[in-house]
Write a structure and sequence with these properties.
alpha+beta; four-stranded mixed beta sheet
Length: 194
């Protein structure tokens, strides 16, 4: 019954002149792309490019990303027909990896970020400078501010001044045997009206 109701609702969704279904919003949680040749953000850029043809004008892309990418990289990823609205929600600072599997995925990603910095790429905003011991972690602060007046957050931003770079995080945190901290963030992009 739920499937039939969904199919019925989906069939009644707005469509374009060519029959393409248009959505009010698209939710995406893409993985990091190849860090050997890019900044790890290519999949997110591709989601934004592709979503434009499937969104209604004024529709939204809701995208999850690690705080390390930085709000500047998120804003710059938006094609011209989008408005970056900012971070709408984020976890507190949490361990970047919690078990062997997540370490095997996220540690090489962090090391890839450091390599991208060494190649002259945009700096990453990684581990918080004021939390270098694991006993100090997990403060419940949302450090981002949304640029959209309709969405409110009320705390300081994650910046180059408040975080270590990827290179510094690898050297000062990972090589010291500690697990780096990060925030899982949800970013909002609005497709501008045509």
């Amino acid at each position: 019954e739920a499937r039939k109701a969904f199919e019925s609702e989906f069939a009644a969704a707005d469509d374009d002149d060519d029959g393409t279904v248009k959505f009010d919003f698209i939710v995406a949680n893409p993985p990091a792309s190849d860090l050997a040749s890019s900044d790890g953000f290519d999949f997110r850029r591709e989601v934004l490019r592709g979503a434009a043809s499937r969104l209604k004008p004024g529709g939204f892309v809701v995208m999850q990303a690690l705080s390390y990418y930085g709000q500047h990289r998120m804003a710059n990823a938006a094609p011209p027909h989008y408005r970056y609205c900012g971070v709408v929600t984020a976890t507190p600072w949490v361990d970047l990896w919690t078990d062997a599997h997540s370490e095997n995925v996220l540690r090489p990603q962090l090391e890839g970020f450091a390599l991208e910095e060494a190649r002259g790429g945009t700096r990453y905003d990684c581990h918080p400078k004021d939390i270098l011991e694991s006993s100090e972690k997990k403060i419940g602060i949302n450090d981002m501010q949304c640029s959209d007046d309709r969405i409110r957050t009320t705390t300081r931003r994650i910046t180059h001044e408040t975080t270590l770079s990827a290179t510094e995080t690898v050297k000062q945190v990972v090589q010291a045997g500690r697990v780096p901290l990060g925030k899982w963030q949800t970013h909002l992009f609005e497709l501008l009206l045509e």
